Amino acid sequence: xxxxxxxxxxxxxxxxxxxxxxxxxxxxxxxxxxxxxxxxxxxxxxxxxxxxxxxxxxxxxxxxxxxxxxxxxxxxxxxxxxxxxxxxxxxxxxxxxxxxxxxxxxxxxxxxxxxxxxxxxxxxxxxxxxxxxxxxxxxxxxxxxxxxxxxxxxxxxxx
Length: 159
Hints:
By secondary structure, the chain is α/β, with parallel strands linked by helices. The chain is built from five helices and four strands. A four-stranded parallel β-sheet has the order 2-1-3-4, with helices on both faces. Helix 1 (27-43) packs across helix 5. It is globular.
């Protein structure tokens, strides 16, 4: 190292406030993602009263709810959770694409980080695997991501 300043985010909640927006469609998967996210936030010091869970109909509605939450100025980070499972029509492509694009725009527009915990999978088995079975819990991974980003942005804004 030649004197560079390295900035990393820590996996500590501190006094940060978190919003979780959860799509109810495919709830058998989404609820498991939520359990993973909540467990991870709590294990890293988030107080229950600093976590708000908002349920919306499905993945398509996630970006708008996330945007309203981010614009409220109350939340330090938002986790979006849900599952879009491919079917026999192109509906999957439209919903998954707009969901991801919208969530990305929320973070860029508001400066509030948004973690993507929305599964986009081909089969129910893949969704179950990613919600706590064989492939870990992507809700927990999204919570780790938001913890790191909230702390990182705090450090960048207040060096």
